[in-house]
Amino acid sequence: MDASTVQANYENTQPLGTVQLSSDSFTTVVRMASAEVSNENKTHTFWPIMDLDTNTTYQIKVTTGVQDVAGNAMEREHYSYFTTQ
């Protein structure tokens, strides 16, 4: 994965960036504090600026702006979900 194409929103809660985390269907996103790339650009770890709400379902969206090292973009957005306890 081309690490330069993996971006989160560090400034505000607007749904910007190629990796987004939201609990309200992406009306707003969780603001991120920092990120780390490891494992030869295969692992991207993001830390939110504050604790996530308990008992809340969050959606992760990876947009087609993410590219591999050859410059190939994802064909479609990818979504994943998790619920905090």
From TrEMBL:
Pfam families tied to this protein: Big_5 (PF13205)
Statement: the UniProt record of this protein carries the keyword Signal: yes
Q: Which InterPro entries match?
A: Cu-Rt/internalin_Ig-like (IPR014755), SbsA_Ig (IPR032812)
Query: Which Gene3D superfamilies does the entry link to?
Result: 2.60.40.1220
Residue ranges occupied by any SbsA Ig-like domain in the UniProt entry: 18-84
Which keywords label this protein? Signal
Q: What is this protein called?
A: SbsA Ig-like domain-containing protein
